[in-house]
Write a structure and sequence with these properties.
By secondary structure, the chain is an alpha/beta fold. Helix content is about 30%, strand content about 25%. The chain folds into two domains: about 1-140 and about 275-285, Rossmann fold; about 145-275, Rossmann fold. The chain is globular and about 60 Å long.
Length: about 290
Amino acid sequence: MHIIGGTASTALAERVSRRLSNAPFGIPFTKRFPDGEMYVRVGGRLENEDVVVVQSTRTDADLLELFLLVDAVREAGARHVTVVVPYFGYARQDRLFFPGEAVSARALCRHVELGAEAVITVDLHSPQTLQQFTKPAYEASGVPAIARLLRERPVDLLVSPDKGGIERVRRMAALLDKPWIAFEKKRIDSDHVELKLPGDLPMPLSGKHAVLVDDVITTGGTIVEAAKLLRRNGAGAVSAACTHGLFLRDAFERIKAVTDEVFSTDTLGNPAEKASVAPDIAELLLAHRPGA
């Protein structure tokens, strides 16, 4: 099995390679022509090999590079191609809200799987997106990676910033054998929310270390308000954790100012990247490798 790491996921791809008993790992050569078009070339012998292309798709350029990488490994003779998209961009529009608009999650599923036999991603915006693929598609979870990190910290309470994340925080609580709660959230606009503590807390918050757990942190508005609410109710320490750390604008600095620690997995490069999903991706690759 050969691992190819796109420019958006080079470090993570190398970690996956190491988890697969140091599987052959390659970094493609990329450049831009004077007119702005992208050039991609992969090295090494890939004839009749099983190839894994790892590339998050945060930007349009990341998407284009992924499409070209898949074509390049096919041109190099790869027998079986698995595309790993740790952060799957354009996944938030997963249904039709107004006539005539594009369902971007569906459109990207159709294009990402072209030239591949299988797709692996991590913590999609909606699990239903997997159903948009026509080829085998699997979703790893960022929960185990964050749990592995939290085992090294004195955690008292796990907190979901809204009820939509209950399944996530419940799963992490089970892994860590810790209590959990979920805030009640009312969104005011894209940057502002109103949060309330649930009525039945499993313990007094005074002096406790509470960890906020989310799938994606984008602008940070919800996490900032959640951290402030925990502080006002006596929490001794507050941390924030997520799978995908987008941290747009000054989100990271704003969250850091109201928490004791911020950490994310390595699906995207960012200042909070402290946990790795490489073991979880490698496990899926082994479980669903050709002939397994």
